[in-house]
Amino acid sequence: MPLIVSPPIAVIADRAGAVSSDELNKSIDMTITKYRYDNSGDELNGYVDVTPVPRGTLILNDVNEGLPPTVERGKIVALRIMEQVRKTEDLVNRAYDQSLVMSYGTYYAKRDWRTVPVEPDGSAKFTVPALREIYLQGRDKDGREVFRMMSALQVMPNEQLSCIGCHENRDTVPAVASRLTDAARKETYQPKSPYWFLKREGNKELPDTRIFDYPTIVQPVLDTYCVKCHNGGNAECGYDLTGDKTRFFSMSYDNLLGRSRSYRQHDMTTGKMLPNEAAKGKPLVHFFWLLFTPSSVSEPFITGSYASRTRNQNGEQRKTTG
Predict the structure, then answer these.
(1) pLDDT in tens, 161-205
(2) Count of helices and strands (H, E) across the chain
(3) Looking at beta carbons, which pairs linking 239-248 to residues 24 or more positions away fall under 8 Å?
(4) Which of 38, 79, 158, 314 could form a disulfide linkage to 10, CB 3.0–4.6 angstroms apart?
């Protein structure tokens, strides 16, 4: 089965919600309640990542600098370090405008280098793998993605790279500091891995356990909590969430992203969802199609969990893992 890595996810079940039936919404809510597969708290209290790769250091002065007022100070408590993995094959015999076929949306595999904390004053200081294309996701206390970098950064081995903020105007200069930031007063943070990840580290069948891989990360959750009812030709609400193979992907992946009509097009200049697309309501599982991904600075709350239709039984949006 091909590698499936889009949308950028921790757990796709955590982004699911009502489709056409309250039953599906209820069953997914029960799954989220029982199985918090990954959150920033688990990751920050995990074991130190000792993967032998060259590293540099990233110093962030204030994550809130450059973000709009809709992001309250203290909202972002962690940053996830992501790598966009370079391709090694030519694009031939395309499907979904890509080859090798990766997913519905992105052309690239994503590698997770773990989550690091943001201090109360918005600062952070942590190591990142060198000589790689890295981007960051700002996450709230429940692990949901608040915003993401739509560009990338790179560091050389042992290099220190500093940032003023996130998405600040490029003409911004750092203020004269009258005091050290909270992060500057501490040792450089070494990213940690959650303890559940040890199971993946021990799986010799996975060539790279850091790659987001739908069959081995997401499908086991669905197998445990969903497929008892959502399987076969008479699946509840008509949604088959099994891992049975389809032409390119699987029944659950095709149902959650394709059959649910989850795709929403955003304005490629402003990044905002087009009015006729927004009128359809929140998608079941929000994702970008890379061919028409906005080229602007990413607005907060327009991707991932916050943009997906995941609600608890009180009608409030679920606290999911982004």
Answers:
(1) 998 888 887 777 766 556 789 998 999 998 877 666 666 666 666
(2) 7, 9
(3) 239/19, 239/24, 243/215, 243/219, 245/1, 248/2, 248/95, 248/96, 248/101
(4) 38
